[in-house]
Amino acid sequence: MRSASDDLTARARIRDAAIRAFARDGFDATSLRAIAAAAGVSAALIVHHFGDKNALRAACDDYVVAAFIDDKHELIEAPTTDRIRTALHDLERYGPYIDYLGRMLGDSSPAADRLFDEIVQVTREVLDEQRRAGLLVETSDPEMTTLLMVMLGLAPVMMRTQIGRALGGDQLSRAGMLRMTLPTLELLTHGIYRDSAFLDGAREAMASGEPVSDGTASGGTASGGTASDEGETS
Amino acid sequence: MRSASDDLTARARIRDAAIRAFARDGFDATSLRAIAAAAGVSAALIVHHFGDKNALRAACDDYVVAAFIDDKHELIEAPTTDRIRTALHDLERYGPYIDYLGRMLGDSSPAADRLFDEIVQVTREVLDEQRRAGLLVETSDPEMTTLLMVMLGLAPVMMRTQIGRALGGDQLSRAGMLRMTLPTLELLTHGIYRDSAFLDGAREAMASGEPVSDGTASGGTASGGTASDEGETS
DNA sequence: CGGGAGATTGAACGACCGTTTAGTGTGCTG
DNA sequence: CAGCACACTAAACGGTCGTTCAATCTCCCG
Q: What is the Cα–Cα distance from A15 to A13, expressed in whole angstroms?
């Protein structure tokens, strides 16, 4: 067994190098030899310490998840989805882990599923609490609203490079993330639409005889069509 | 040169099989031999028709992007980010392409960058138009608001499996996407917060001398600032 | 000191991958 | 019919990868 003080050793160096490499290049595109070189060890030592490449991945997953979970529980009281962005906004600490997290959520590993579920649950709890405190407006589908908040919080993580590119290219770091805070809160406070024309239209469209539900046949238009629907039968 | 009527041939079968395989397993994890088997041809024929594996990927990228762009331009007039979801809502047609799109945006290929920029631009144009029509509330950072709308539209694509799992596991298809329409419009119309306490707090925090907790040395807060300018020289 | 346990390594193995090569069939053209 | 172009293939090549193996090195304990 390995004691907690066993860190700072070759095993820890391998883990850190693997996290960096997986975050930068992805799991498949990273070879054990590349990780070994970055950690200053041989490829065989990785296998000796972790078993095989998948076990190394699992160890990295657990480590990153633990880092986020532990440092997040102290931030649970922060306002809703900004919990995530609050954890994001000192990138110099979480930097490598954020890219790793994006990779994790991209190709869903078991650990990524656990982390995602945890994020959803924490978001749900925070929203419920705020709802009880009377801070929230009523929504027709609270669970889906929870997921929307999760998406809004996780999207910057998964689209970091694209967003950085769209914002001008070079500033894909803390400044870009900070720039997101105020518009996000504006959206959460006022929405973007001045009146409820779109919403009413969609409500009407979905409430009409249109089945909307599931099913293979039918193929109703549904969706949030504008004022006038488009009877696309496909 | 290859005429457009050259489709439906082995070349088209290879492309379709590659799109399916790339969407299901990712680019790196898909071998040419697997694509060849799925298309009923030999691996060498793929090289004969496309050059190499990266060229095949580029051809698939272009094909998928064209499918989305062409079918999307007829939907530009749809409300903001629901443009994307409107295109999503008949998954039985776009199904494979959506997963492929998610993979594309995950590992940013040149074609993915082009597509993302196109989506941002279309979203910006629609928002500008709606702003001119007086449908939108003012925001402190319109460009970032545009990106938020893009994120809200693209997040379901990139987190499809996770969201499907969180919604109960089996329903990761059209019904799940449809369920998202109304809560999304509610968010865009009313936000989720009843008052502007969080927003005011954040505005105050960012406007004050508080560097919003940066890391090492001072380093101007920069960020997107509030209504006032932010002469960011980059 | 002696010996065992774990850390660490270089080298090799086997599998798979992308690509190349040399070739076969097939249909159209002159 | 000769010949060429093209779709198509089986087999092999070279490289990389994950993993295994046999062997050191190091340190601690009796």
A: 5
